[in-house]
Design brief:
The chain is α/β, with parallel strands linked by helices. The chain contains twelve helices and 21 strands. The longest helix has 50 residues. The termini are far apart.
């Protein structure tokens, strides 16, 4: 019994002795393509306890503590941006940096995935080593093991062979070890020491910047971005504080609420503001009507990251808009656990919802392909399909589409209580329609990002921004309230608007 336990312990030690170095070397040797702000980037894990951002020879490096266990950090090398305007790229980076939580969460997730895969590989190799050791032990057998013990110490020839094998193994392991010649000494100073005009923001107190030729000669380049950062941080932080405890209607007993956002167009600055409305209204979930991005590019995943991080504790139900083209944004929504409506009714917090992404978001038969007839046909087909589904189901209370053009037939038939949409960047409605199946209300709300055309990211709102709070009772939409944010930081709380009740049942 004792010998068996000792044998098992020996195998475990062998497994650990192999698994730990393999996992660690695999982890630090992993490199992954990521998107950070407006840039493609490459991330590599480290054990120096910092997130280090390198943006090329003309700009200084930045770093901040990672606060991760075991001193895990990352080296992030920013590559080129799909945007060809340098000033605009720097402005985008600065505006994103004013609300960095989504990007931090995304990087943490990437590093966690790399760590998990490295642990998997280390464990697999460790188990293989244990099986191999056990197999060799069994194959040698007790008789041969006794002979080997009696013949100890080995002959010079045996010792030479064993030594050569050990050198080969050590050489194989050295391949995985980092090259010490690549390590660079960098002088780090607090970022406010180089740029004392930065705002007194707690998160900046932990940021350091490299001191050298880059920081000395790039101040003119960086200054413009810092101005954008300061203005964006000031405007949206002040607006979020102003929205705190907003006097919006909270649900009464037996009721629940949802927050509606749409057409954010990358303006992550409005996310904390929208969160204040959600908290005041005690919402149960968030409904995202699409156009979270401007171009649907992979680097715009920061907009999805920000929305998820801002509403990390709430379900997010979403449709993609016509600007969320291609597969990147939908994939990021799925990765961030958004519930993407796909043309079939779903139950969310007791509410039956129907919706579908804008067909122009696919980038295939429609989208920005220059053929308007394809776009019209795709919307028309979606309109007919959604109406058919809603009317056959009979229990759908809320229709969520990016464009109101996809809800016309459903409204005409009166098969939902409320059809809500975005796309127009301005409020239209509410409009009540009497149909064969009952009374329906249509409502289009304005851009939550305050977007003009397809762009909203900047130092402040470009036009009125809106969110809506929907109220439900017994699984039905019973009312809504719209909150508008003006470019001058004025907040307008609209009246609570009850929806017409269902028509009384007729008696033959």
């Amino acid at each position: 019994m004792r010998r068996g336990l000792l044998g098992a312990l020996a195998l475990l030690l062998i497994g650990l002795a192999v698994a730990v170095p393999v996992a660690v070397t695999t982890f630090v040797g992993t490199e992954r393509a990521v998107t950070i702000g407006a840039h493609n980037a490459t991330a590599r894990p480290t054990f120096d306890g910092h997130i280090r951002i390198m943006a090329g020879p003309l700009l200084p490096e930045l770093r901040m503590p990672s606060d991760a266990p075991l001193g895990i950090g990352a080296q992030v090398i920013l590559r080129d941006s799909p945007d060809t305007d340098l000033e605009r790229v720097l402005a985008q980076d600065a505006a994103i940096a004013s609300q960095p939580e989504g990007e931090i969460a995304a990087m943490t997730s990437e590093i966690s995935q790399m760590a998990f895969l490295a642990l998997q590989r280390g464990a697999a190799v460790g188990v293989m080593a244990m099986v191999l050791a056990a197999g060799v032990w069994w194959a040698v057998g007790p008789r041969r093991r006794r002979e080997l013990r009696r013949s100890w110490p080995p002959t010079p020839r045996q010792a030479l062979v064993a030594g050569a094998m050990g050198i080969v193994l050590i050489g194989a392991l050295m391949v995985y070890l980092p090259d010490p010649s690549t390590h660079r000494e960098t002088a780090w100073v607090p970022i406010r020491q180089e740029f004392p005009e930065l705002p007194d923001e707690p998160r900046l107190a932990r940021v350091e910047i490299s001191r050298g030729a880059a920081s000395a000669t790039s101040k003119a380049i960086v200054e413009g971005a810092l101005d954008t950062y300061r203005e964006s941080l000031r405007f949206y932080s002040d607006l979020a504080r102003k929205a705190e405890g907003l006097a919006v209607r909270a649900p009464e007993p037996g009721q629940s609420t949802a927050l509606v956002v749409t057409d954010r167009h990358d303006n992550v600055g409005m996310d904390p503001v929208a969160r204040q409305v959600a908290d005041a209204a005690q919402v149960s979930f968030v409904l995202d009507l699409g156009d979270d991005t401007s171009n649907g590019a992979s680097w715009e995943a920061f907009s999805i990251n920000s929305l998820r991080q801002t509403f990390a504790d709430l379900p997010i139900v979403a449709v993609a808009g016509n600007h969320d083209t291609g597969r990147h944004i939908r994939q990021e929504m799925e990765r961030q656990d958004f519930l993407i409506l796909d043309g079939e009714p779903v139950e969310v917090e007791g509410v039956r919802i129907l919706g579908e992404s804008d067909p122009r978001s696919s980038g295939l038969t429609a989208g920005y392909n220059g053929n308007e007839s394809d776009n019209i046909q795709a919307i028309s087909e979606q309109d007919e399909a959604l109406a058919r589904t809603a009317c056959e189901d009979g229990e759908v209370t809320l229709l969520a589409t990016h464009s109101s053009a996809s809800a016309r037939r459903t409204l005409e038939q009166g098969c939902v209580d409320l059809a809500i949409s975005g796309h127009l960047h301005r409020q239209v409605g509410p409009t009540t329609v009497e149909g064969p199946a009952g009374t329906a209300t249509s409502l289009t709300i304005g851009s939550t990002g305050g977007a003009v055309y397809a762009f909203a990211l900047g130092t402040k709102l470009r036009r009125d921004a809106q969110v809506a709070v929907l109220t439900f009772e017994d699984g039905r939409v019973v009312g809504f309230q719209i909150v508008t944010f003006r470019p001058g930081a004025e907040i307008v709380i609209g009246d609570y608007t009850p929806l017409p009740g269902p028509a009384p049942a007729t008696v033959d």
